[in-house]
Amino acid sequence: MRLFPRSLCAAVAAWRECFPLHGRDVARWFPGHMAKVPSFYLGSHVTATALPDWLAWQWQKETLGLKPHLLVLNKMDLADLTEQQKIIHHLEGEGLKNTIFTNCIKDENIKQIIPKITELVGSSYRYHRAENMEYCIMVVGIPNVGKSSLINSLRRQHLKTGKAARVGGEPGITRAVTSRIQVSERPLMFLLDTPGVLAPQIGSVETGLKLALCGTVLDHLVGEETMADYLLYTLNRHRMFKYVQHYGLNGASDDIECVLKTIAVRLRKTRKVKVLTGTGDVNVVQPNYSAAARDFLRTFRSGLLGPMMIDRDILQGCLPADIDP
Ligand SMILES: Nc1nc2c(ncn2[C@@H]2O[C@H](COP(=O)(O)OP(=O)(O)OP(=O)(O)O)[C@@H](O)[C@H]2O)c(=O)[nH]1
Known about the structure:
Structural class: alpha/beta
Helix content: 25-40%
Order of helices and strands: HEHEHEHEHEEHHHHHEEHH
Number of strands: 8
Low-confidence stretches: 1-11, 33-46, 52-59, 321-325
Mean pLDDT: 78
Bound molecules: guanosine-5'-triphosphate
Strand order of the largest sheet: 3-2-1-4-6-5
Largest sheet: 6 strands, mixed
């Protein structure tokens, strides 16, 4: 069990046990192009911060079953990997036997990818064509997980050359399947970058909120303040209280209005609002809640509030094979 300083949570009577989900229309958060299904795969790719269960993994599994595939869990620097063995065990239970954790910013574990792909293709009778020594790999995954970064990172490692795929901090940067991009000379390997895809239907509103927290959807479509509230709820549930110190709050809180107000004041994010009074208009300075929410989300996504495993609940009761209960 993780311990946390008593003083941090003394001010809070009780954490919220659940997040209010009613009245939210998850279908409107995700643009149509993300539901399109490509016709073939080889590489697959999701963020390490959350497990692929909530991506309606079944949908991908059906197609993946036809081709050799490798699951790349990127952004490992942002994920809490203290239960890495449980994660691997859980994924193996889902039929995902080949998994690599990566960090494309620091090129961590990137060198393992090409040998693994070569081994997988070599051991697959259907795709092992002795007369054709070229490999063509498709990178598939949810938006904004670092598919383009992975291609650039592979090129840095194997070709010592610069970037070929456009990278950006928002989802939807890659809009169409690119032409083949070379990532290795020996073996000769090409990758196809693809726009982010999601299951045609998002399982639940909470699933949508988790995806949104990982930056899979443009924040304003869900609402920055709603997302900031879900982030606060999640941080408190995971007993991650770095936000208190980071923003100089008096203590941990489950009240998003109070937290955003303090952030706005500390960061001097205020705005002038016209208020109609009996004697005319008066300009009033108010905390800018949206700007504070944006800063809160950005800080979390840059890892400053600590590494997180959003789907920790899924791992409960999932023990690696070599650990006795
Ligand atoms: N912390 C961290 N950030 C990363 C990592 N890999 C990529 N990023 C960042 O994640 C953001 C999205 O990266 P992209 O490579 O554009 O992601 P994508 O999956 O191609 O995005 P779409 O084309 O929108 O689907 C960028 O700001 C990257 O710098 C990583 O391993 N760790």
